[in-house]
């Protein structure tokens, strides 16, 4: 694959483009238009979501902001990585 100075792949090395037949395009368009999906959230689901959401802690945010401004805020990359891994595992398990 050859890349020119602009960072774009040279046209001579690109994949061949297949022209779609009018019938194929019409069939695909009508198939997509006839499908419809909907999502509904019950009042019970909304209430449960409201109960499980964590409250915003303005004092903690102010303390972190002051520590950053003073140059005293320490970042713990291991804790961040552990939290990311844990949340990813939780999302994949659910």
UniProtKB/TrEMBL annotation:
Record's keyword annotation contains RNA-binding: no
Keywords for the protein's UniProt record, in alphabetical order: Bacterial flagellum biogenesis, Cell projection, Cilium, Flagellum, Repressor, Transcription, Transcription regulation
InterPro entries on file: Anti-sigma-28_factor_FlgM_sf, FlgM, FlgM_C
Chain ranges of the Anti-sigma-28 factor FlgM C-terminal domain: 39-85
Superkingdom of the source species: Bacteria
Family matches, as Pfam families: FlgM
Free-text function comment from the UniProt entry: Responsible for the coupling of flagellin expression to flagellar assembly by preventing expression of the flagellin genes when a component of the middle class of proteins is defective. It negatively regulates flagellar genes by inhibiting the activity of FliA by directly binding to FliA.
Family: Belongs to the FlgM family.
Protein name: Negative regulator of flagellin synthesis
Organism: Vogesella margarita
